[in-house]
Design a protein that fits this description.
single chain, Rossmann fold, DNA polymerase, domain 1, 2 domains
Length: 252
């Protein structure tokens, strides 16, 4: 297969790797919609401010997701367990955990949507480079998101920690992704919203990275000089910026 390439002064951009959740797929929106439904459905949560409820849920989600990735919990069991913990902390009936988990899942799925501009950006980049997703998640879950958001047609490879045997920021998962798209670190870029997982993991392999930072947060390491994107729109301008960043990375 011939590569779709962009020629720079020193090297070609053969591949662009993307994180999925909160980079191309709007997980934050889905989670908030789902949590709102749960918060309203259980009277014990009425005394808990939504922002506090959301923070506690995020902490449990992060901790239990590691057990899912390690194969110690199923994704359904982890979902039930985090609502068990939330109900217990609010003085609710812990027997309602499975009902709360079902409410969350139903609302999360119905709220699925891409990050604004994601589909148009992938379409703009597709003629110029191979596109891959690198995600710390389960294969079936991420395939569903890509399909339901209309992103799957633009993706050449989906690499998930479940199959790779490594999770970001382990450089191993990025190495596997590069092998799948037949590119070296110098011929690729990584774009993601997590500084620890996406940026530090990619840079550990010598893979240039772009931080997707829609909230305008200060970079954890300003001295690293990592370029940022605040939005994926308009697609043509963002695609041009991405290609220019790669070109500059190999001129500096």
């Amino acid at each position: 297969m011939l590569f779709r390439t962009v020629r720079t002064r020193e090297t070609m951009l053969r591949a662009i790797l993307f994180d999925l959740d909160d980079t191309l797929f709007d997980h934050r929106h889905c989670a908030r919609e789902a949590l709102t439904a749960v918060h309203q459905a259980h009277t014990c949560f009425a005394a808990v401010a939504f922002d506090e409820f959301e923070r506690a849920h995020a902490e449990h989600l992060e901790a239990l997701h590691l057990e899912v990735l390690d194969g110690r919990l199923s994704i359904d069991a982890a979902r039930a367990e985090r609502f068990h913990r939330l109900l217990a902390a609010a003085g609710g009936a812990i027997g309602d955990a499975r009902r709360a988990a079902a409410t969350y899942r139903e609302r999360y799925v119905s709220a699925r949507r891409p990050v604004p501009g994601a589909q148009a950006l992938l379409a703009a980049l597709q003629p110029h480079a191979r596109l891959a997703i690198v995600s710390n998640n389960l294969l079936a879950e991420q395939q569903e998101k890509l399909r339901e958001c209309g992103l799957d047609a633009y993706v050449d490879a989906l690499i998930v920690s479940e199959e790779a045997g490594a999770s970001k920021p382990d450089p191993g998962i990025f190495r596997i992704a590069l092998e799948r798209v037949e590119a070296s670190p110098a011929e690729a870029l990584m774009i993601g919203d997590s500084w620890a997982n996406d940026i530090e993991g990619a840079r550990a392999l010598g893979l240039p990275a772009i931080w997707f930072n829609p909230g305008g947060l200060p970079p954890p390491d300003p001295s690293a000089g990592v370029p940022e994107l605040r939005t994926l729109e308009p697609a043509a301008d963002v695609a041009s910026t991405i290609r220019s960043i790669h070109s500059r990375a190999h001129r500096d």
